[in-house]
Amino acid sequence: MTDVRHSASADGVLHTLFHSDQGGHEQVVLCQDRASGLKAVIAIHSTALGPALGGTRFHAYTDEEFPEEAAVLDALNLARGMSYKNAMAGLEHGGGKAVIIGDPEQTKSEELLLAYGRFVASLGGRYVTACDVGTYVQDMDVVARECRWTTGRSPENGGAGDSSVLTAFGVFQGMRASAQRLWGEPTLRGRKVGVAGVGKVGHHLVNHLVEDGAEVVVTDVREESVRRVRQTHPQVAVVADTEALIRVPDLDVYAPCALGGALDDDTVPVLTAKAVCGAANNQLAHPGVEKDLAERGILYAPDYVVNAGGVIQVADELHGFDFARAKAKATKIFDTTLEIFDRAATDGVPPAAAADRIAEQRMAAGRA
Q: With b meaning 16 or more CB within 10 Å and e meaning fewer, what string describes 323-351?
């Protein structure tokens, strides 16, 4: 039978987090289904603006000493980020996130996804799920068989399909806004842009950049991802890894499009780019990195603002998906990013702090 259990290690980390600055979440559900092998965490940070909306990550956490604790931490951080992202995107949704613990290549199964769908359904609509790292449209079609609060489904099943399309489009709009702020024109033509991670989102971003006339340099841990980009755009340069990419001479924009924590105490001091704008979540490894970027004169476009195109797409799916309508809303990421830059200059704070202030004001108004 499907049940909800709190393991000793997870209880410990929850106790710690709910008495720390990372707390404040409305609900955290630890899920276990013995028959399918499912172990998952569903975190709801806020429903102040509406039902929590956020994707499902499928990840093994094999590098961690206590993978369950790492999964809880990841879910909590990602859920909080979704609250801010949805608020800045102007959506009537709060923030939530789910993590399924395991290697999707080894443990993902129909039975497991159906069990996960039952857990989401048990929340009665407080959390609406979608795709994330390790999950895909076809997975959401399976989850939806047990849960009507599922987005990111295939078009043949009434969904919007691949949300990475508008995620990349939104990042491109944020990059155009960064160019406007730095160089007075909303274009990357003639600029050198480094893209770290050319998977689901990154390869679409490269398409936009090449079409806009940018000089593009890429890297990815998966050779097949790089090969796909080069087959379409043979003029794109490739470097061995992210360490090499951040040191590319005369780099104008750095676009982290893989996992989080890309900006830390090691990368920021050697980063050659004049701006950072990418699709990855939680790019700032810890508080204070945004100040380090500002002190070096590097313009940072807050990740949860510019990568909101995907959540805009799946939110539209709940109302009968219309691509043109969703794309029009994602286009506004350009204006929102400029608004954040203006607020940062007015308040004398880094753009990340300015974005947080605006998002928090919107969530506070939703609670009133």
A: eeebbebbbbbbebbbbbbebbeeeebbb
Give the mean model confidence (pLDDT) for residues 318-337.
96
97 annotated active-site = yes
Using the predicted structure, report yes or no on whether residue 176 has a pLDDT greater than 80: yes
| Residue 339 pLDDT level (bands cut at 50, 70, 90) | very high
Annotated binding-site residue numbers: 197-202
Note the pLDDT of residue 360.
95
> For 55-79, what is each residue's pLDDT tens digit?
999 999 987 677 889 999 999 989 9
The CATH topology of domain 3-13+22-77+94-154 is Rossmann fold (3.40.50)
Whole-number mean pLDDT of the chain? 92
Given a contact cutoff of 8 angstroms between Cβ atoms, the answer to whether 133 and 259 are in contact is yes
Rounded to a whole number of angstroms, the CA Rg of the chain reads 20
Catalytic-role residue among 39, 85, 97, 329: 97
Rounded distance, CA 123 to CA 287, Å?
32
Positions of CATH 3.40.50.10860 in the chain:
3-13+22-77+94-154
Contact by Cβ (8 Å): 69, 13: yes
* CA separation for the pair 252, 194 (Å, rounded): 8
What global pTM score does this model have? 0.86
What does the pLDDT look like over 243-255, one tens digit per residue?
A: 999 999 999 999 9
Strands (E), 169-292: 192-196, 215-219, 237-238, 253-256, 275-276
Tokens, residue 315: 């939110």
pLDDT exceeds 70 at position 39: yes
* CATH superfamily of the 164-308+334-363 domain: NAD(P)-binding Rossmann-like Domain (3.40.50.720)
Known binding site for NAD(+): residues? 197-202
